[in-house]
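Many introductory courses stop at the sequence. We go one step further.
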Amino acid sequence: MALARLKVGAYAGLVIVFVPLAHLAAGPLAPAQVAPLGLAAILYARRVRTLAGERRAVSSSRQAAFYGCLTLIFVVVVSPLGHISDELLLAHMIEHLLMADVAALLLVLGLTGPLLAPVLRIGVFERLRHLAHPAVALPLWGADLYAWHLPALYQAALHHPSVHALEHAMFIMCGVNMWMCLFGPLPTPSWFGNLGRLVYIVSVRLVGAVLGNVFLWSGSVLYPTYGTGDAYWRISPLADQSVAGAVMMIEGSVLTLCLFAWLFLRAAQQSEERQQLLDFARERGLELSDRRAARAVAAGRSAELRRRLEARDPSLPREAPASVGPR
């Protein structure tokens, strides 16, 4: 009898352990969200191969960033996180941050001007490029972020897979558009220098921080749909909501510090490149204004400007034209 009870107790313990594990492994496959990833990978690979044949190869680091973006989105969608995000707000917050912030940033880092050229030649996309203007991209990103966190839209995404897929698509697209101003190959306005970028980064941080504080300090439950999931995971709805806000605040702070470090290093490098151009021109008696050198460096065209200066340098030997002898 004692042995039978021991066996029953052991079996019950195994059930207690494996039921949550089975629950965690029940992440559903979402074809509407996975299929575009495969299409994007195929189109990107074809364009990379074409550019390599034209001696305009895309660097391995950019390719790694782009494929890293697709891999991250795939893992988020098909992993247990994709299932738990329907039950816990904090899991859903992690899912959205990985997609809308990290994956979108990786996608932008994987792009170059030649890669985007065929897309921008399509009329509608050529006109949409104006949405990447910093004065447009930031409000658009903020409006999308706040709209999808309204209770009606947010809970509709939880109940309807098609709305959920649309939510993810808009988060990623608006995130890509927001990052494009800082890291993308599209031209930016002249006023969007390092100071403009600093204001932009701080503004992005403030927009996200306000929403994070709403989750963190709100005394009422914003999304009652999570009640069943919260009960399963033995966490109160308000605690789930507060942790989600804390996750958003921490991720935003870490990301902002990384962006500040990047901007500082960028400013230092640009200052050095600008000074090198000015020194090169002065040593050879060539005219070059500080403003022109700064504009070339900011546009990533310092090497091109240096070649132009070398072409004007009278001290460099010139190839003599071939003389035509008597016939």
